[in-house]
Specification:
There is one protein chain. The chain is an alpha/beta fold and 361 residues long. The chain contains 13 helices and 7 strands. A 7-stranded mixed β-sheet has the order 3-2-1-4-5-7-6, with helices on both faces. Helix 1 (49-56) packs across helix 2 (73-80), helix 7 (178-188) crosses helix 8 and helix 11 runs parallel beside helix 12. The longest helix is centred in the first third of the chain and has 14 residues, at 92-105. The structure holds S-adenosylmethionine (SAM). S-adenosylmethionine (SAM) is lined by residues 44, 46, 68, 70-74, 88-91, 94, 115-117, 134, 136-138, 161, 254.
């Protein structure tokens, strides 16, 4: 079979830290950095948009699936290029934003409310030329105090992407075992001082329930010591909030569950593009892509080459990252990594030949 090289030219650079301030804070003003990943000017700005378009805008009138509609930034750009988009989001607030696109683009745009972990059920027999995932939160989540995602705004400790289902962050914090809290804050949050935060949560909840974002923010501020050296670039509660949010929404499990379903929903020649913001998300995507391409999934994957089946082509040997200019304009893009996989036109029976590594951008 002939692999078509994917000619995407996007500058990759180390993301530069960007400091922002001036936002309402539930804690004493000026004590801690208050950066959260909202873009300058508010609203949600789609990350790595040029790269996503180059991955998915490959021919006129493509049938595309946006599995994480959010503010509809990527979807709108794809609709503006004449494509047909079916979009999914589990957040009820996204439904109202989708309704506005419906009016503007008519039948070329459709929306289904649901969790992408049920993708096969949500799309049925429909097949796509391209599928996009832009995992995680949109800026709307951080900006809406009632959703409980932000340490910048006081609100109920909710953090559910779909507030109609599952346990809230407050319920998680009230009931989670030491091991579950450690997994959330240490593994998902990558918080070096996780031990002290977990102990403080367990001790505090004996007498006072953690119900509001300000309760959790103050608890973390109280136990996280300032290290000597340069001032912190992020608020000390950033990682704790991230880890608890990932646990509450089972974000890693749903990514693992959706990737094979998305691949199955691709037409031959179709492309799967996934944007991750967390190293654990990116690892899941990378390993799935490598498995589909018949490559070792990780350094310790010692299966013999003849046991691997090549069903796809990885188009991004290394993930695409935001340029310094994009990071400056949209701090949320700082940690974004885009990987793209292509399903071949015909079933490829031969195994991956390591002497012919995948093409790259
Ligand atoms: C980063 S935002 C997407 C932003 C979008 N690409 C844009 O340009 O506006 C991620 C969206 O995916 C949604 N989401 C996250 N996990 C989901 C899941 N498991 N099922 C459905 N939607 C999910 C969130 O509610 C959020 O709206």
């Amino acid at each position: 079979m002939v692999w078509m090289p994917f000619q995407m030219l996007v500058g990759c650079s180390s993301p530069a830290p960007v400091e922002r301030g001036g936002r309402r804070s539930p804690h004493p003003v000026g004590r801690w950095p208050v950066r959260e990943d909202a873009p300058i000017g508010g609203g949600h700005v789609p990350v790595l948009l040029d790269a996503v378009l180059e991955a998915l805008d490959t021919a006129p009138e493509r049938r595309l699936l946006d599995g994480t509609f959010g503010g509809g930034g990527h979807t709108r750009a794809l609709l503006d290029r004449g494509h047909h988009v079916l979009a999914i989001d589990c957040d009820p607030d996204a439904e109202a934003r989708a309704a506005a696109l419906q009016t503007a683009y008519g039948a070329r745009f459709r929306f289904r409310a649901g969790n992408f972990t049920d993708l096969a059920e949500l799309v049925g027999d429909e097949r796509f030329d391209g599928i996009l995932f832009d995992f995680g939160l949109s800026s709307f989540h951080y900006d809406t105090a009632e959703r409980g995602f932000s340490f910048r705004h006081d609100g109920p400790l909710d953090m559910r992407l779909d507030p109609r289902r599952g346990r809230t962050a407050a319920e998680f914090l009230a009931n989670a075992s030491h091991g579950e809290l450690a997994q959330a804050i240490r593994i998902f949050g990558e918080e070096p001082q996780w031990r002290r935060i977990v102990e403080a949560i367990l001790e505090t909840r004996e007498s006072v329930p953690l119900r509001r974002t300000v309760d959790l923010t103050r608890l973390v501020e109280g136990v996280v010591s300032r290290r000597p050296g340069p001032p912190l670039k992020i608020h000390p509660a950033t990682r704790t909030f991230q880890g608890i949010r990932i646990a509450v929404n089972e974000e890693l499990q749903v990514i693992e569950a959706v990737l094979p379903q998305a691949f199955a929903a691709l037409r031959p020649g179709g492309r799967l593009a996934a944007i991750s913001f967390h190293s654990l998300e990116d690892r899941l995507v990378k390993r799935f892509f490598r498995r589909m391409a018949g490559q070792p999934e990780h350094d310790r994957d010692a299966r013999p080459q003849q046991e691997r089946v090549c069903q796809a082509r990885v188009l991004t040997r290394r993930p695409i990252e935001a340029t310094d200019a994009e990071v400056f304009a949209n701090p949320r893009s700082r940690s974004a990594k885009l990987r793209v996989l292509e399903k071949p036109y015909a079933t490829q029976t031969e195994n991956h030949d390591p002497s012919h590594p995948p093409s790259r951008f």
